Fold these 2 entries.
Entry 1:
Amino acid sequence: MVSAILAKPAPGEHVLVAGGAGYVGSHVAWLLCRLGFRVTVLDDLSTGHRDAVPDHASFIPCDLRDQEQVSGIFMETKPSAVMNFAARSLVGDSYRDPMGYIRHNLMIMTNLAQAAAANGVSSFLLSSTAAIFGTDGTGKISEAWPIHPNNPYGESKVMCEGVLRWLEEACGVHTAALRYFNASGALFCADLGEAHDPETHLIPIVIQAALGRRDHVDMFGADHPTPDGTCIRDYVHVLDLADAHVRALLALRKVGGLRYNVGSGTGYSVKDIIQATEEITGRRIATIVRPRRAGDPATLVACSDRIGRDLGWRPVNSALPTIIRSAWAWHAKHPDGFTGASPLPRPAMMALHA
Ligand code: UDP
């Protein structure tokens, strides 16, 4: 089900994955390990989970906002490539603490970029987002779409992409930004998946309701300018995203300046997701209509033609039933997510090798 991967790692190729204990980062770290890359995960476990880090990766607990700590780790571990997944990433939450979001995400980005430039890193890949684009709800969003974020989270990623640009142009590091749409689904073995506390994302919430762990799903707005009044999103399987990251990493050996939108190209409304989950699980899911959530655009659907053309990427696992079945299997097998993981004290620093 992983369609990639045309090349083997170069000897000694070492990827530092910041935020690799989180949802998307852990799946990318898993795929990198499986393909034979050497992987070091840095994470403070504030929202990530130690048990989500693959066995074959090294894990270094780290407060990525601490420049001295970050720079010490780069000097010690000498990565050849960096992937940055570490960020606060909730649209609604970013309205409640806009400056905190921007400061946090930029501190991490600038610390990593500075350490990368100072330590001979050749490739840097940023986990970016569809939230950088303005949308008027017409048409699929390509890379040519205006950069015009609707919320502080999206703005923080625009700023991170700005750092990326100068890391490339002024420091000579090859860079890529993958702007993904709605990451979803889980590994097909059901042993790695999405676990947030509190959960705010639609698909896990709908599945928790199907499992009887919540009594209803709040629908944020039924008066959006969409056919059924609920927001439309482009759900892309997390393994397809992992595949995109590996393809971009391989391409960065030769070229820089890669900017790609990554989504399935198909939009589903909140009501579509609930109905599909009811059909797949055979459970009835109650809903309550609530006011719109701040910062939610009505429609976000990707045009991923560029990454398809340049890197041969295809969303092979992103049919909606595949996404929901894999998420359902993960949540049914691990209803409490990763248990036993707790945030690490700051500024602890110890290398734990699997
Ligand atoms: N949503 C919802 N109820 C929920 C969670 C999300 O109606 O309990 C909606 C949300 O307003 C958005 C869509 O589902 O339109 C996807 O939200 P999610 O938080 O999963 O991802 P986002 O698009 O914000 O990154």
Entry 2:
Amino acid sequence: MFIIKFGGSVITDKAKECCFKQEVVDRLAAELKHANKEVILIHGAGSFGHILAKKYKLNGGYKQKKQVEGFALTQAMVQRLNNLVLASLHNHDLPAVSIPPHAVLSLSNHKLSRVDYSIFQKYLDLGFMPVSFGDVALDKKLGFSICSGDLLVQLLAVHFKPEKVIFVLDEDGLYSANPKDDRNATFIERVTVKDLDKLTTRLNAHADVTKGMEGKLYTIKQIARVGVDTILLNGNVHNRLYDTLKGKKVRHTIVQGE
Ligand code: IPE
């Protein structure tokens, strides 16, 4: 089984509110269908979630009444994005079912407090493709906060120990430094967690409420600790996902499980 995350910057235009990249999602859905693997799919919120979540400061938890409106709006918007993703998967004959995080888990000070993994397992056993996503969720300490898709991937990977975790990004993988402002930055094909610690990585310039690449590296380290490999690949390049699922050698980064 594979756990795959479609990053919000691949499936939406992060700069424009609620801008869904239909063609990209349709192509990725076709690649998933073609590869014919057992998959739990997670997708990010992109511009359906981050803009509102930032506006209403949802990740800091409940502080004022106005945020309640923001929470409700954000939940509706990410659900709308989820419906768009599901429709694309269904159009490609993939038996996708939605598992909204706000309904199956709760957090405590941003960390997981409770999650029902059995729902994912039961759907898998019946041949479905469970699909979950970055969402707002109840938080025991903070009232509410954000459950990022990366946190979901981490929890599910540690629990299910999939064959591989794949992050579908809008860049080829990891570099030794930010390639945009360091000409000596080199592409990393394979790396261990120990080497990861030495890396200078770039933080996303976007208005992300979850922590961009820094947060992702933390997630990947937790996954590596349970012995699972993580692959980072470019979802904007045709067949990188398909080829990776088929075990073909393409340009991507593998972070080796320990
Ligand atoms: C964020 O989810 C969820 C909300 C802002 C509500 P992610 O952190 O997984 O989303 P992307 O991949 O960065 O867009």
